[in-house]
Specification:
Largest sheet: none
Number of domains: 1
Strand content: under 5%
Number of helices: 7
Helix content: 55-70%
Shape: globular
């Protein structure tokens, strides 16, 4: 396996923390690892969407909370703040985007596109968070905010257009 990101140390997929942080390996895509991480989150979302909303929210909250540790430890182990291969934040951000949205091909595609737009373009306050919050919290919180912004847009689209 060739590994050419900014990290000083290669990923250890046999470590369960790294396996989750790397989105079950999806973050190791040579190009656009965040996009591949978000794509890999979709099948898990489809399973989570079968849960009642209250339980879905608990799972997403747990994914965000534990994600701070997952991403922070993996970044520390790799010797770099936010290696692009760490994509657990994309998993959580996409799951946030899809909160209380009716599941359909259209809503999943729209949720994916909206989340990626906010995650890539990083409008305020996402860019400020990305530059000023460090550690595992910094890795997670910009994607959490991107997910919340995408969630708001997706709910508006769903209400007015779908």
């Amino acid at each position: 396996m060739k590994f050419d990101y900014r990290s000083k140390l290669p990923p250890k997929l046999q470590d369960p923390i790294h396996l989750l942080a790397f989105g079950f390996g999806s973050g190791l895509a040579p190009k656009a690892p965040g996009t591949f991480g978000t794509l890999a989150a979709i099948p898990f979302f489809l399973i989570l969407s079968l849960l009642p909303l209250w339980l879905y929210l608990i799972v997403v909250l747990a994914a965000c909370t534990y994600g701070v540790h997952l991403c922070g430890k993996t970044a520390d182990d790799m010797g770099v703040h936010d290696d692009p291969s760490i994509v657990w934040d994309e998993f959580a951000g996409f799951w946030i985007t899809m909160i209380a949205i009716p599941v359909s091909f259209t809503t999943i595609v729209l949720g994916f596109v909206l989340f990626r737009i906010f995650d890539i373009l990083k409008p305020w306050p996402i860019d400020w968070i990305d530059r000023n919050v460090s550690g595992g919290l910094g890795i997670m919180v910009d994607d959490i905010v991107a997910g919340l912004m995408a969630l708001g847009c997706l709910h508006l689209i769903n209400y007015f257009l779908l």
